[in-house]
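To whoever is on call:

I kicked off a structure prediction for a single chain this morning and the downstream step that reads the tokens threw a length-mismatch warning. I double-checked the sequence; it's 303 residues and nothing unusual in it as far as I can see. Pasting both halves so you can look.
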Amino acid sequence: MNHHVNRRHSLRTLVSAGALGSTWVASGAWAQATPSAPPTPSGSPAAHGRIVSVHGSLTEVVYLLGAQDQLVGTDTTSTHPEAAARTPKVGYLRQLSAEGLLALRPQAVLGTDEAGPPTVLNQLAQAGVPLRLVQVHHRFQDVLDKVQLVGAVTQRTAAAQVLSAQLQTQWEATRRRVQRGAPQAAPRVLFIMAHGGAPMTAGSGTAAQAVTELVGARNALEGVRGFRPMSAESVAQARPDWVLTTHESVAASGGLARFWEQPGLAQTPAGRRQRLISLDAMALLGFGPRLPATLDDLQRQLA
């Protein structure tokens, strides 16, 4: 099991044990563990005036609902819209800084169950900072859960309902287009993430595989769960027809030509034909409000 899965398992263990104090976990319906305060009605958490968002998809929803005046900080994945990139940063969503978070005096922290490390979440709970978390399942319902959470916390429930309806309409139209345009033979797609460290490839149980399958393609990295270090042998065995990556990975690699120099890529069908698709990381993997448009874009490029 990879370290991302381990962290999510640790967080769920803490939540189930009530160790995080005031923590909300959303998965279609709300759940709450708040031993020091009376229960809040399901789906109606108290509004908070100073919010920190530690997931780019949630930050996007904050802006779409017009609640950015409540946003006092974000994590480093929060770069869209452009204004979000200029907000005070508290670290990467899985490597948050308790000191940075607490210095912003937040009245709530919005995130997903990927947030961590658990020690930082415990420090926030001990400081009395409520955590509002969405469970990640890598499906469209995640998007609606995030809209519901942000709408409830910011007291913009009416706007959240409108946005949810708009996204649902976009999603249904996208799914119809994807089904009509699905190729007879599903292309093999290898996702590579190289945001500065050792390049990683994505197996099952990842957002990359979920997105790949949503457009009628196949994950070329079969028999592997989670993210794994990239090797020439595994790439050759994967035999991808396409390589899928992020704009951030191409930039961190030093450009497109340098990206193709990574081990094993040149010997693959994708490498020989220079078939690479690069998209914004949060739009591709974040399961946020840009998901329908991103799937449209991905399928068009795969066609």
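Update from on-call: the warning came from a stale cache, not from the record. Cleared it. Sanity check on the structure: Residues 1-23, 27-46 have pLDDT under 50 and may be disordered.
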